[in-house]
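Morning run. Coffee first, then this:
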Amino acid sequence: MSNRNRQKLLERFFLDRFREGYAGFPQGEIKCSERPDFLVLGREQTIGIEVQEYARGSSKDEGSIQRRDGELKRRVEAKAITAYELRSSTPVLTWLQWNLNVSLEKNTVDKVANDVAEIVAWFVAQNDSDKITIDWEDLENSPSKNVVDSVRIMKLSPGTSSFFTSVEAGFVTVTPEELQKVIDDKNALADGYLEKCDTMWLLIVAEGLHVASTASLTDAARQHVYQSRFERVFFFDSFSRVITSLV
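And here it is:
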């Protein structure tokens, strides 16, 4: 699966989880698109929905190291999906929480990927719960114990594709300035979006490489009046399914 196809499937997964939790989601056929990511074809209007993963930025000094580390983690994720599907037919969304004090080495990618896949498959088989957490203590005897702090698993509906993705350790607080920057970046593309739809929604999803297990909006972030060309803007914690309306 290409990175682009994988990203599109993740975006649709996030959108579907949001739709399930938001009673005001518009009625209509959902079509995949580009800029915006999705179109909801209603009887009276077409609503474009752009899905943007929230990611805290990194400094220029850290950039090259993080890009290298991020690429290796993406390789682990891709290989782990293939290895997992050879061991289990249960589709899952799996978050790998990495030890930020240990760098992943290129020559360990295959070993870590296979180990993670085996661990996830075992825990999925042993647990009836749809949500599973594998703590560091559970990884004590595994080859991944030095690089992976914990693993979170969510069982998905049959027929869904499995995903492995990464989160940083820690608890991220989100400020109004950070959210306005995300909105501003998308505001700049609004004219192009409106060529395909009548009105636009922006869904900012707390999930991805630079997002902690649960993102916390400050009171200031919740109460701030954002400048947006989007009719509606939401901040969505995909794991907890908490939805915050920003606009």
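Confidence is low (pLDDT under 50) at residues 57-63, 208-213. Good start to the day.
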